[in-house]
Structures are given as structure tokens and as C-alpha cells.
Amino acid sequence: MVFKMNEISDYFNEQLDIAKGELQAIQDKIHADSLDIEFIEKACNEISSSKDDTNDIFFFANNENVFENKEIKKLKKQKEERLQSKAKLEHELAEKKACCERLKHLFEISLKMSEKADNCGKLSIREADRQRIAMDIHDTVIQNLTALILKNEFVIKIMSNDFQRAQLELKNINELLKSNINELRDIVFNIRPMSIDDLGFETAFQNLMGKLADRTQMFVEYDYRAGDLSDIDSVILINILRMIQELCNNAIKHSKGTYIYAQIEMHGENIEVIVEDDGIGFDYKEISQKQDKNFGLSMIHERITLLDGNFEVCNRESEGTKCTITVPVKRGNDSCGKYL
Fold it and tell me: Which residues contact 164 (CB under 8 A, 6 or more apart)?
């Protein structure tokens, strides 16, 4: 079983709280025994001071009273039991204090490791996003601009001899320029979906699904049921959009299906995202063990971990794949700045 570092730190913190409770319980018992001992000693003194002076004739040479009051004997026995109990509890107290110190030390270490793991996760996602942006620019804009340079040189050569052909090529160049502008807009949208800030999360989700529908032959359907999320940290919402985009891209590239459906819904304090297709499916457990071979799913896993969420993949025989993402959220931007 694989544990997240934050789960380990939470475990040690929980055990430390339990140990502190047990420590307090032992201290309370020691205090109770001390009060009992004090009460017994006081009772013995009162009994001794109130005895009849005629009992003094019944002494041995060693000054031991043969007829020592039975009540005093009983109280002394109780006192001895309390002293033994107190000594045992003081030993347990020392051990429990040492246990608390060990748990506190382990909690502090695990907390530092958890913070380090979170920072590494954040850095890996940022680096992955930079790599993705670089690939997008290289595979689209740069190649198109290179093609424009070649076309422009060709127009210069033929302009004096074949003006009509040159005009036609200029129109093609104009179309390529428009295409490049659209590509750059898509890249900017992927960097920061500005419509979240300007128009809201629902519109950003609709825009994303519309862009995906425009570039695939698959039938794309989506449904938004989460209501107004304007008081939730926009960083969380952006990461949810990125995960939806990645899952839809995987379906377009690898599912061999004809249909994609995405849904966003609010359940209590959780945002639930469902992305499903009617393709051939995949073995998520096998892919998870080879994350380097599926960059997109690896990044989804990183984001889910940082958001303290949950990711489930259900493969339905002959019916495709259903992916469910659950992300806990807080209203009022309480968690602003925590993620990425």
C-alpha cells in the first residue's frame, strides 16, 4: 500500500494527540492517588490523636502497640497500595512523555517531508506545463511561421512573372497568419484561461469543451451543474480545467471512440468531475506504474495529490472509460495561494 506524505504526517499528528490525552489521564490518576494518600495520612493522624490514653500500658519494649487500631492498619494498607499505584503511574508517565517526544519528532520530520514533496510536485507540474507550452509552440506556431517564410520567398520570386499566382499565394499566407493567431490564442488560453477571471468558471468550461469539439470528429457533449463558484480559489478551478482538457485529449488521441461526455457537479464541499468516452479503454493501474510512458495521466495524478482530491477510472467492457475526479474546496477563497 502506498501512502502520501500528508497522510503519514496526519497519522503521526493523530497519534500524538492520542498520546497527549493518555498522558493527561495518567497525570490525573497520579494527582488522585496523591490526594488519597494525603487523606489517608490525615485520617490516621486523627485516629491516633483521639485514642484512649489507657492503651499506653499495652506496649512492648520496642514501643509497638499490640492493639494498634484496626482502622489504622486498614488505612496504612490502602496508603501502601496508593503509593505502589502512584509509583507505577509515575513510571508510565515517564514512558508516555518519551513517547510523546518521539511522536512529536516524527510528526515534524514527516511534515517537512510532506512540504518538500508538495514543493517537488508543484515544481514538476510547472515544469511540465512549460514543456507542454514549448511543444505546442514548436509543433504549431514555429512550423507555420517557417512555412510562411518559405511561401513569402516564393512569392517574391514569382511576383514579376506570375502576378496572379503571387496573389493566390498571398491569400494563402493570410490564412496561415490567421491560423497562427488562433493557435497563439489557444496557447494563451492554456496558460491562463482568462475567461475564469472575466466571465466565470462555467463559461471557461464551455469554451474549453467548444474548442475541443472544433478540433475532433468525435461527438462532444458536456453538462455543468455546479452553480456559481466565484468564491472558490481560481487556481483550483484552473487545475480542474487542465485535468478535464487532458482527459479529453487522451480520449481524442487514444480511445478510438466516437463520443466524449464531460460533467461538472457540486456535492457538498466537493467538486465532482466526470469525463467518459465510448472507446477501447485502458488499464489505469498498469499505466500508473509506468508514469513516464503516459505524461498526461502522471500530471493529473500530481494535480490530484496537491489538491487532496481523488481520481477513479472505471473501464466498462465495450462501453469505454469513465473517469471521476473529486476535489474538496473551501468557500470564500480560504485556500488561495496554497496550490501551485
Answer: none
| C-alpha cell read off for 268 | 457538498
**CA atoms of 32 and 267, how far apart (whole Å):** 49
pTM confidence score: 0.51
Set out the domains of the chain in order of their start, with CATH numbers: 5-124 (1.10.287), 195-340 (3.30.565.10)
Secondary structure (DSSP) of 195-223: HHHHT-HHHHHHHHHHHHHHT-SSEEEEE
Q: What is the pLDDT of residues 168-189, one digit of tens each?
A: 888 888 888 888 887 777 676 6
Three cell numbers, residue 119? 514543493
How does strand 219-225 pair with strand 259-267? parallel
The pLDDT of residue 337 is above 80: no
Helix or strand holding residue 324 (H, E)? strand 320-328
Q: How many CA atoms lie within 13 A of 142 on its CB side?
A: 7
Residues 309 and 313: their CA atoms lie apart, in Å, by: 14
Sign of CA dihedral 37, 38, 43, 49: positive
Query: Could you give the CA distance from residue 212 to residue 272 in angstroms, rounded to a whole number?
Result: 20
- Spatial CA neighbour of 185 closest among 207, 152, 213: 207
Element (H, E) at 130: helix 70-136
